[in-house]
Design goal:
By secondary structure, this protein is of the alpha/beta class. Helix content is about 40%, strand content about 15%. The protein has two domains: about 10-130, Rossmann fold, CATH 3.40.50; about 145-420, no CATH class. The radius of gyration is 22 Å and the shape is globular.
Length: about 425
C-alpha cells in the first residue's frame, strides 16, 4: 500500500481551526485518516494505543496528565479518549498558555461525559472527518464545484470518467484512505469486510463498555443495510431482527444503534425543517445511513458483480455514497445535508444548507431515464417553499451516475457524481 499522504478536503478547515483555537478535536470513524491528517500538522505525538506505553500513559493521565502534554506544538494526542482525564488537562493548558495551535486530539469513540468534564467551549474546536469522497480519491474529475453552484455559477459542463462498473467497485471498496489507490482489487475490497467484522466483534462493545453479542450486531448491521437510504423506524428494525432473536427488545436495539453512533459507524440523515407556503406537514424521520456505503455492502455481502445484477440495491447504496460525498463537500463550505419529505409524498433526497441560510436541493438518480421526473420534483419543491423566509434555492440539481454535466432548459443542473467536488 502507498503510504504517501493524500491531501484531504478537510485539511484546509483543520488549518483554519488551528489558527483560531488552542486545540482541535478530530472525530470520525476509525481508519478514515484522522491520525494521518493530524500527523501532517503536528510536531510531536502521543499515541495512546501504543502497546509499549499505553498502560503507563493511562496511569500518568490518572495522576498527573500534564506530563503527557509536554512536547513540541502542535502536539497530537491520538485516541485521547483512552484516558478521558486528558480532556480537562488540555483545556487547562490552553487557558494557561494563551496560544493557539497547541494540541490536536483524535478520537474514534465519543466517550461518556462525566460531571467534572469541561465542555471545552472556546478552547477546543471540533471537526468531523469522514472517509474519502470520490474527488479526494481521484475518481471524480471535479468539473463542477458545489461552492460555485452556491455562488451562482451556471456554466455547467464536464464529463465523468466513472463507469457503472467502477462505481460499483467504489461503493464496495469505500473511501478508506489506505486502499483508495490500491492496485490489487482483492486487497482493496477486503478493508470494508475487516471493518465490519471489527465493529461487530470488538468496537461496538468498547463504545459503552457493555458486552454485545456479535451475531446480534451483525444482524442489526444487515437490517440497517437493507434499510439504507430509507426512513426505517426502530420498530421496523426490531421486527426485522425478530426472525433471528425474539428476545431482543426495542430498548436493546436502541442501545446497539446508539453505540454504533458513538463509534461513528451509523450517521443518519436528518429531515430538513423548512417553512412552506401552505400548512403541509413535513415528516421528521431521519434516513438510515452509515459513515461509508461500503459498510452496508459488506454487511449485505454484496460484491461489484452482485450490485450490477441488482439495481434496486445498487440504487440505495448509490444514494448513500452520494450523501457521503455531499457531506464532505458541504462541510468544507460550512454547510449541512438533510433530506425532505412531506405528507403529500413529495420527497427530495438531499437538501444542502449553508450557515448563512442559502440552500440547494438535489435528487439522486442513477439513470438518465429518471432525470425528467427528478427535475419535476425539484421544481415542485421550489414552488411550495416560502421564499420570503427561506429565500430562493441557490441551485436545483439532479445528481447522477451518467456521463455528462449540463444545464437543462428549465434551470436544473444535471451533475454526475463523478464530476462533483466541494
Amino acid at each position: 500500500m502507498d503510504d504517501r499522504y493524500i491531501n484531504r478536503i478537510s485539511d484546509e478547515k483543520l488549518d483554519l481551526l488551528l489558527r483560531a483555537k488552542g486545540a482541535v478535536l478530530i472525530e470520525g470513524p476509525k481508519w478514515c485518516g484522522k491520525t494521518r491528517s493530524a500527523e501532517e500538522k503536528s510536531k510531536s505525538v502521543l499515541y495512546m494505543h501504543d502497546p509499549d506505553s499505553s498502560k503507563e500513559n493511562i496511569l500518568i493521565a490518572q495522576s498527573k496528565p500534564s506530563l503527557l502534554l509536554e512536547g513540541e506544538t502542535p502536539r497530537l494526542l491520538d485516541e485521547w479518549q483512552v484516558a478521558p482525564e486528558l480532556w480537562n488537562a488540555v483545556r487547562f493548558a490552553v487557558d494557561k498558555r494563551r496560544a493557539n495551535a497547541q494540541f490536536l486530539l483524535t478520537g474514534s469513540v465519543i466517550p461518556a461525559r462525566t460531571d467534572d468534564m469541561h465542555t471545552g467551549t472556546g478552547r477546543i474546536a471540533r471537526m468531523k472527518m469522514r472517509t474519502m469522497s470520490l474527488f479526494e480519491s481521484g475518481e471524480s474529475t471535479g468539473d463542477v464545484s458545489l461552492k460555485s453552484l452556491f455562488d451562482g455559477n451556471r456554466d455547467i459542463e464536464g464529463a465523468s470518467i466513472l463507469s457503472i462498473e467502477k462505481l460499483a467497485f467504489a461503493i464496495n471498496r469505500g473511501g478508506w484512505p489506505a486502499v483508495v489507490r490500491e492496485a490489487d482489487e482483492e486487497i482493496a475490497l477486503a478493508v470494508a469486510t475487516d471493518y465490519h467484522e471489527a465493529v461487530a466483534n470488538e468496537d461496538i462493545s468498547r463504545a459503552d463498555g457493555v458486552e454485545k453479542n456479535p451475531e446480534n450486531v451483525k444482524n442489526l448491521l444487515r437490517s440497517l443495510s437493507r434499510n439504507i437510504s430509507c426512513e426505517a423506524r426502530t420498530s421496523t428494525i426490531l421486527n426485522d431482527l425478530a426472525a433471528n432473536d425474539e428476545t431482543l427488545s426495542q430498548a436493546t436495539v436502541n442501545q446497539y444503534i446508539n453505540a454504533l453512533k458513538r463509534i461513528f459507524v451509523v450517521e443518519d440523515l436528518p429531515a430538513w425543517s423548512a417553512k412552506l407556503r401552505s400548512k403541509t406537514a413535513i415528516r421528521t424521520t431521519a434516513k438510515r445511513h452509515f459513515a461509508d456505503p461500503s459498510i452496508a455492502a459488506a454487511s449485505l455481502r454484496a460484491t461489484p458483480d452482485r450490485l450490477l445484477g441488482d439495481f434496486r440495491t445498487f440504487g440505495f447504496l448509490f444514494e448513500s455514497l452520494c450523501i457521503r460525498d455531499l457531506r464532505v463537500y458541504a462541510e468544507s463550505i460550512d454547510g449541512n445535508v438533510y433530506h425532505y419529505r412531506d405528507k403529500s409524498g413529495l420527497e427530495i433526497d438531499a437538501i444542502i444548507q449553508l450557515a448563512d441560510g442559502r440552500w440547494g436541493a438535489a435528487e439522486i438518480k442513477m439513470g438518465a431515464g429518471e432525470i425528467e421526473s427528478a427535475a419535476s420534483n425539484l421544481l415542485k419543491l421550489k414552488s411550495i417553499i416560502d421564499d420570503e423566509s427561506m429565500g430562493q434555492p441557490s441551485f436545483l440539481m439532479v445528481l447522477t451516475c451518467t456521463d455528462h454535466a449540463f444545464l437543462m432548459k428549465n434551470g436544473i443542473c444535471v451533475v454526475p457524481i463523478g464530476c462533483l467536488k466541494n
